Amino acid sequence: MANEGQAKGKVKDIGGKVKEEVGDAANKDDLKNEGQADQAEGKVQKGVGDAKEKLSD
């Protein structure tokens, strides 16, 4: 079962991918870069959630 950190991280990652694609399609580098940053943040957040889950097992 996913914990809160894992779930929020996954949502942030997916949202970042969407934002990156929209920025790419609209030729808006700032939006594309923001999407990439969101993806990175989401991956870190999910990683922290994964670590917490392993520690609680």
**Residue runs with pLDDT of under 50 for 5 or more positions:** none
| Overall form | elongated
* Share of helix, binned: over 70%
Q: How would a crystallographer describe the biggest sheet?
A: none
Strand segment count: 0
Q: Work out the strand percent.
A: under 5%
Distance linking N and C termini? 12 Å
Total number of helical segments? 2
Give the class from helix and strand content and strand pairing: mainly alpha
Question: Radius of gyration in whole Å, from Cα?
Answer: 13 Å
The H/E string reads HH
- Overall pLDDT metric: 95
Question: How would you describe the overall organization of this protein?
Answer:
This protein is mainly α and 57 residues long. It is 88% helix and 0% strand. It contains 2 helices and no strands. The chain has helices at residues 4-25, 29-56. The longest helix has 28 residues, at 29-56. The model has no long low-confidence stretch (mean pLDDT 95).
